[in-house]
Each structure stands twice: as C-alpha cells, then as structure tokens.
Design goal:
83% helix
C-alpha cells in the first residue's frame, strides 16, 4: 500500500472536521463514567482535607519538632568539629535540651504564673494610681473622653465568667485544651530528640528516593537547606534569648512587678524577625505606663537603643552563617505565615523562605543561565 493510500481517511471515507476534533478534546466519550470519576475524585479530596484538618495538631507538633531538631543540629556539628563523636555530641545536646525543658517546667513556668497572679491582684491599685496621676488627667482632657469608663468596661468584659466560658468553649473544653497542650509539649520534646538522633539517617533515606545520577547533587542541596534552616532557627532562638534577658534587666531597673512575665513575652514575640522587637517596644512601653511615665520613657529609650545594637552588631554575628534573606521577604513571609498558622507560622516562614531562596539560587538560576539558545532557533 502506498503512502498516499495509507493517509486516506478510514472513517467511511469521511475525514473528521477540525471543529469536531477540537470538541472531542473537552467532551468525554463516556460522560457518565467521566462524571462519576470526577465526583469520586472530589469526594476523596474533601476526605483528605478533613483528615489533614483533624491531624493538624499532630502535624504542627511534627513540624515544630523537626525545626527544633534542625536548630539543635548546629550545636551537634560544633561538637563534632571539636573532635567529639557525633553519637556523643547528640547525647550531650539531648541531655542539655532535656535539662532546659525541665528547668522551664519547674522554675520558669511557676514563676511566670505567680507573677501573672500578682499582676492581676495588683491591677486595680495600679489602675487607680494611674488614673490619679497628672499626665493621665491631661491625656483624658485632651481626648475629651472618660478613659476610666472605657478601662472599667474592658476589665469587666475580660474578667466576666460568661465571656471566658464563651471564648474557651466551656470548662470541659478548656480542661481538654490544657491537657492537649501538655501532651503536645511532651510530644514535641520526644520528636525533637528523635529527629536530632536520626537526622543523618533521614537525609540518606530521602536521597535514596532520587535517581542515582542526581543523588550527589540532591544531597548537597539538602545539606545546604538543612544547614541554613538550622542556622536560622538557632540564631533566632539565640537572639530572642538575648532579647528576653535584656528585657528582664530593664524591667527590674524600672521597678516592674512582673519582670519574668515580660521577659517571656519578649522571647516569644521577638522570635518573629525585624518586626517582633518593634512590636514588643510598643507593648513594653504601654506596660511600663502602669509604673510611671518616666519608667515608660526610660524603657522606650533604652530598649530602642538595644534594638539598634541588635540590628547592627548582634544579629550579623549570630546570623552570619545563615542564608541572607531580604528584609521585604522576611516581612512578607512572617505576615503570610502568621495569617495561615499564627505565631508558629510566622516562625517557620523565615526558614522556609530561606530554603526556597537556596533552591532558586542553586537550581533555577543555573538552569536558566544554561539556556543560551532560544528553543525556536
């Protein structure tokens, strides 16, 4: 059979029209089966989403444990560089981490609770003293409103039992929430220790899923990402710890009755890079107003000076080994992470952003640079 005869249409001698061929691309040949398949896929997707939502607490604990393990890994590597075997270095870091958790549970948490109760008991006297001061009366006169009524209504709504039960979902649900928080804390500690001890095995297992000819490049990329994430996490925790110690000293100097509570609040708030310190500058200054205007002014000036020292001297030395993330990406990542997952999302957004930047710089940019000839040339 010649080539001309083989190209003749076999559908009764009539070739399908271009319009019919284009229509067959979008309209399935078996609409009932195709519709059932699509509906089944939608049901499976909804079921998967519901399953992920129900496992959100477990997934958050896993991610938090992994990020803490990556933050502890630089300490293990530092011990390795000093001639200590990795297994012994992991044991040392694990014991130090457990001791730190025990100290937090037995010392820091009770002291914070006591100071919080003391602050609640002293709140009426502090508010009364503030309302009788000259600067408060001047502020009230300039605003033209009765701030005492506003404060009284806010305190009444905040301390009302029915409002608390409505917010917490009831006593039983609040109790389950406390138990869940304790169990999540224990789970995070256990997962962190496990991830620290098996981080190298996890990297090897992940690399084995990649074809052999790409395995070395993939392993190098994973090492860069984990090293960068570990440096960001460890550096962020170090900076927040220094920040909390500075706040503790400043609160003691200005005569605050809750210095440990303010220091812990500063630790968690300043974990968010760039904007965390500025947020606590506002919170700490407002809290110091309950002591005196001069105390608030002193805290504002001294803590602002520390922010400058931190930005120009402390941060470059602590975060020097981490990947450089532009400030605008830090802010955008923190905002997106906080919107999706709250404080935890704001914390993990920065390491994730750093990882994405590494992939772009190491994979995407070299691949684009290698394309020197247009496809249609």
């Amino acid at each position: 059979m010649s080539d001309l005869e083989s190209e003749q249409p076999t559908n009764g001698g009539v070739a399908p029209s271009p319009r019919r061929s284009a229509l067959l691309r979008f309209v399935p040949g078996h609409p009932l089966i195709s519709g059932f398949t699509v509906a089944l896929g939608v049901i499976l997707a909804v079921a998967l989403s519901a399953t992920v939502a129900s496992l959100s607490t477990v997934l958050i604990s896993i991610f938090l444990g992994l990020f803490l393990a990556l933050g502890l890994d630089p300490a293990v590597r530092a011990l390795e560089r000093r001639g200590i075997r990795r297994s012994l270095g992991i044991a040392i870091v694990a014991v130090a981490f457990l001791v730190l958790m025990i100290v937090i549970l037995l010392v820091v948490v009770p002291a914070t609770v006591r100071q919080f109760v003391t602050a609640l008991q002293a709140a009426p006297d502090a508010i009364a003293a503030m309302q009788s001061s000259d600067w408060y009366r001047s502020l009230e006169a300039s605003l033209g409103i009765d701030l005492g009524v506003v404060i009284e209504e806010s305190i009444r709504s905040a301390t009302d039992l029915s409002s608390f039960l409505a917010i917490s979902g009831g006593v039983l649900r609040a109790g389950f929430g406390i138990v869940g928080a304790i169990s999540s804390f224990v789970m995070v500690v256990v997962l962190t220790l496990y991830f620290v001890s098996s981080l190298a095995v996890m990297k090897t297992a992940l690399a084995n899923l990649v074809p052999a000819y790409r395995r070395r490049r993939f392993s190098d990329l994973v090492e860069q990402i984990t090293g960068s994430v570990g440096a960001v996490v460890a550096g962020g925790i170090t900076l927040s710890t220094i920040n909390a110690l500075v706040v503790l000293v400043l609160q003691i100097v200005i005569g605050s009755s809750v210095p440990a509570l303010m220091a812990i609040a500063a630790f968690f708030i300043t974990l968010v890079p760039l904007i965390g310190s500025l947020i606590f500058l506002l919170i700490g200054s407002i809290g110091a107003l309950f002591i005196s205007p001069w105390a608030a002014l002193a805290f504002l000036v001294l803590y602002f000076l520390y922010i400058q020292v931190e930005a120009y001297f402390v941060t470059p030395r602590v975060m020097g080994r981490a990947v450089a993330v532009p400030a605008v990406l830090v802010i955008i990542g923190a905002m997106v992470g906080a919107t999706l997952m709250g404080l935890l999302g704001a914390l993990v957004a920065i390491p994730i952003t750093a990882s994405i930047l590494i992939i772009i710089r190491q994979v995407v940019v070299p691949r684009q640079n290698a394309l020197t000839i247009a496809p249609d040339a």
